[in-house]
Each structure stands twice: as C-alpha cells, then as structure tokens.
Specification:
two-stranded antiparallel sheet, 8 strands, 6 helices, 37% helix, Rossmann fold, alpha/beta, 6-stranded mixed sheet
Amino acid sequence: MIGMIAGTVGAVDSESVKNSGQFNDFDYAATKQSGQIPLCMIGDSITWAEKGDWWRKELLQRLPNLAFIGTHTAMFGYSHAGEGGNGTGQVLARMKYIPDCPYYNVLIGTNNNGVKAADLIQDKSKQTSEDIIKIVNELLKKNGVEKVFLS
C-alpha cells in the first residue's frame, strides 16, 4: 500500500497493517518536506470506484499539493480508505485500520438507505446520522487530526 502523489510518501505491507491493530505508523516527513497536504478519503465504493478516482484526479488539478493517504489504491494509483458496500457500521468497525492523517474526507451513508418499509425510514435515518457523528468523533481522536470534511 502506498500513499503517493508526487512520489512515494510512505508505504507499509498489508501484513503489518493486520498485525498492528492500528494503522498509525505512516511517515509524514516526506509530506512536510515537499509541502504536500495529506488527505485520507473514507467511505463506500463511491469513495474509491470510478467516480471517486475521477474526483481525486479533479482535486489534484485544483490542489496539486494533495497527497492521498489510505489503505487501498484505485485505478489512477491514488490511495484511499474506501470499501465497496460499506455502510456507516462497517466504517466504525474498521476505524482502527484507517490511517492517522491530518485531513479526512468522509463520504458515507449511501448504503444505509436500502430501507423499503416507510415506517423504518425515520429510525434508519436517525441511526445513520448518529453513526456519521460517531465516525467523525472517532477520526478526531486520531493522532494529528486537524479537520474532517463531510461530503
């Protein structure tokens, strides 16, 4: 796994991530030296699949000093921490594997909307919003966090 934009910013192997219990050994020295701004994008498949990768490409055109950080790499080679099919509960469950980063962008909740029964919509919406608040609060507890952006 690599976090990179203008070269490798840091790397870890998947075995050390599994065994560490917390993905916080990322080396930000290269980002400080290069002036890059680390951003970890978290969410479901919208975060990493076609649209997500194009979104990162567009962001880089507008903010060329971004350095995408994450546990996965998508088709253009940009790192992210998105997982296809995830709802808010799954993101909370894998929080310890999301790398420490000064800036996070969270795009989650789409997969929580599969409610068919009208009488359950209010409860499901409330649970989704509460989970998003928990996600933000958990991210804010990570080392060196400055901002969490919601999309």
